[in-house]
Amino acid sequence: TGPKLVSVEQQTPGIVPYEFKSKKYGLVTFYDLAGQQEYYASHSALLKDSITSSLFIIVVNLCDNEEDIKQKLEFWISFLANHCTSVITKPHVIIVGSHSDVVRSRGEDPSAKVNIEF
């Protein structure tokens, strides 16, 4: 079994690292990056110095309207593409939709929110 999540903050203040040891991969560090604009400069510094392969998880709130979701995804994917310039391999990106339970409770289909083409 892996580490257990003990608390969740509403907003991440800057960059918060989480480390755990994996038998298969050794020491793995996760960085929770704040989504607010005032933290983007610190994100740039972290990404610029990254020299190993990376996996990024972009979380979008499915309660937002489709245009807002699309704009956020376009921003973050472009941000990563422009700032991960020193990595050995291209970063991998996983997009996760949160709040699907709220969308379903409104009688909406959460999958319709993520059917966005770039």
What is the fold's blueprint, element by element?
Layout: E1 15-22, E2 26-33, H1 40-48, E3 55-61, H2 66-83, E4 92-98, H3 100-105, H4 110-113
3D structure, described in words:
- The protein is α+β, with helices and mostly antiparallel strands and 118 residues long.
- 31% of the residues lie in helices and 25% in strands.
- It has 4 helices and 4 strands, in the order ββαβαβαα.
- The mean pLDDT is 75.
- 4% of the residues are buried.
Compact description:
31% of the residues lie in helices and 25% in strands.
Major sheet: arrangement of strands: 1-2
How would the global form be characterised? globular
Taken in chain order, the helices and strands follow as: EEHEHEHH
| SS field, number of helical segments | 4
Our estimate of the beta-strand percent is: 25-35%
**What is the straight-line distance between the termini?**
37 Å
Oligomer category: single chain
Radius of gyration, Cα only, in angstroms?
16 Å
Low-confidence segments, ≥5 residues, pLDDT <50?
none
Q: What is the number of beta strands?
A: 4
Mean pLDDT: 75
Output the structural class.
alpha+beta
Helix content: 25-40%
Main sheet?
Answer: 2 strands, antiparallel
